[in-house]
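[recover] target loaded
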């Protein structure tokens, strides 16, 4: 059964409840691969020194930091106040603002924009792509890094992990069982790799391509703004 995203206010509240242990959870539940995924995604985005870069759904700022290390002048945006507080503590040299990814309180033009583990929590992806077209200059680059579902036997094993193991581990570490049951359900019911590519094309983005990582457990999507 499909699990639609909660209303934005409910999602922000959920992330605020788990913000203190969010990084630990990411590292444990991914087996440390989240570091590898972010670095690869940033390489694929191709940031040049001095590029103005927008990080939407920035969370605790780890992707923002990777893009800053690549030479980008990064602004992170998130609607969860608790997550932003963590980001500001970890990376005080970066700029973080409170805001919704579909109604960003900024003007462009940015040279590039990115989201990590954000699209499946956004109600209206077409509104997101429109906002990115507003904020990023023509020819600028868009990158999405999102959890996806592998196929075949690995897909079956991945489904067992999502249904039975990840929610329990998330609940134990975070102390919030409802949050991790919801997040696991969004992974299982979100668009597949090609559907997300098609959503980006329908949103007016060009040169859309996808790069599966770790046998398709996560996917990097890349596109350009017309």
């Amino acid at each position: 059964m499909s699990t639609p995203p909660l209303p934005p206010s409910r999602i922000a509240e959920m992330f605020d409840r788990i913000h203190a242990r969010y990084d630990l959870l990411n590292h444990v539940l991914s087996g440390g691969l989240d570091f590898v995924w972010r670095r690869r995604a940033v390489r694929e985005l191709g940031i040049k020194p001095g590029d103005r870069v927008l990080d939407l759904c920035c969370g605790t700022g780890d992707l923002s930091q990777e893009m800053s290390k690549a030479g980008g002048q990064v602004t992170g945006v998130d609607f969860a106040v608790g997550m932003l507080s963590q980001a500001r503590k970890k990376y005080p040299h970066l700029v973080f603002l409170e805001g919704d990814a579909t109604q960003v309180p900024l003007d462009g033009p940015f040279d590039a924009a990115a989201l990590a583990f954000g699209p499946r929590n956004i109600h209206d992806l077409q509104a997101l792509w429109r906002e990115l077209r507003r904020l990023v200059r023509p020819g600028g680059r868009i990158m999405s890094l999102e959890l996806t579902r592998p196929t075949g036997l690995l897909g079956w094993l991945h489904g067992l992990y999502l249904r039975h193991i990840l929610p329990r581990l998330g609940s134990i570490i975070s102390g919030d069982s409802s949050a991790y049951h919801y997040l696991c359900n969004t992974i299982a019911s979100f668009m597949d790799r090609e559907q997300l590519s098609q959503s980006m094309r329908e949103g007016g983005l060009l040169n859309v391509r996808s790069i599966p990582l770790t046998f398709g457990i996560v996917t990097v999507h890349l596109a350009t703004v017309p």
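[recover] notes: DSSP finds nine helices and seven strands in the chain.
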